[in-house]
Prior knowledge:
By secondary structure, the chain is an all-beta fold. 0% of the residues lie in helices and 36% in strands. The strands form five sheets. A two-stranded antiparallel ribbon has the order 1-2. It has a two-stranded antiparallel ribbon with strand order 3-4.
Amino acid sequence: MAKKNNDVGYGGRTVGPAVQFKYEKGYLINVKTNKVMDVSGGKDAEAQKVIMWNKHNGANQRWRIVYVDQFKEQNKGLIEEFGLFANRPFYI
């Protein structure tokens, strides 16, 4: 059985996505653990590690999604459960 791009296989069977995130009020939240992406050490510097940490409202846990396409209909394709748009390229 062929695996999908973000699926993890164990013992020859596919078990689904390894990690899912939702974007909510500037935070990237792990759906399973409810931890947020956090720049380790709280430093605003190049090459800092990004880790998962308990939410503490620090600036090192806030993220901005920037879509790279020029899409006019701002609400079309929004997946409300995850706070992201389907099939639109973005960077963080």
